[in-house]
Amino acid sequence: MSALPRAAASLLALLLPLAAHATQLAPIFDAHMHYNVEARSVISPPQVLDLWRKVDIGAVLATSRPNDGTLDLMALKAPDIPIVPFLRPYLRQPDRYDWFGNNREVEQYVEQELRRGIYRGIGEFHIFGADADAPYMAKIARLAKDRGLWLHAHADEDAVERILRHAPGVRLIWAHTGMSTSLDKVEQMFEQYPNIVGELSYRGDLEQDGVLNPRWKQLLLKYPDRFLLGTDTWITPRWGQVEEIIAGYRRILAQLPPEAARKIAYGNGQAMFGLR
Ligand SMILES: [Zn+2]
After folding, report:
1. Which domain does 81 fall in, by range?
2. What is the pLDDT of residues 227-242, one digit of tens each?
3. In what residue span(s) does the Amidohydrolase-related domain sit (predicted)?
């Protein structure tokens, strides 16, 4: 240790906090958020923007039930926070259980929303196992592929594979990266399907006691271009946890090489949706 010249040591001491500080301030692309109707009573659209600025969320993939939440956030036209709108196929909360099963109301709603011509993807929707073979799911997958839209699927690996069979090559954001799917299976899916991107909210195995899971680190570094972060404000109390969630992500990012961290934090979302 004594071989380290005093000047170099003091320079290092100076730079380390600066590096940590830079990670703290890197903007985050929030790839999984909902401004659902129930949240309105606790946080207004301008307050949502204030919160994003406070935690340095620099861009957002918005998907709300109903879609008015997303439209109202976009209407504020915040020049510093681009919003990438996704069409959520839900009018009411219970639609998540049967939106794909001959739900005429949902189908009409989706048709009507698509006419806006603003959406970059469809989701987040929930689908599990053989439900993904429902004709309407297949229709949505093919429509997304034909129109160059992304899918945002909260799904098990079985459903993801069924979706990809309906529309090979369709681009899919895998919400929660399968949530509880084993990391060996995630790795195999990523190898097999280059058009899948994983979103990391609710992956409880990402870290333990503040330390990034080594198996996760390996995966993130193997595919640094294919992971996104998300707050997933799916229930109103999650809005009160956004700061804490983002702090958790920053703790994880600080344990990755800066280039991979920058991509997962923001660069991947930026590249996927052509943001500046
Ligand atoms: Zn969600």
Report:
1. 18-273
2. 999 999 999 999 999 9
3. 129-275
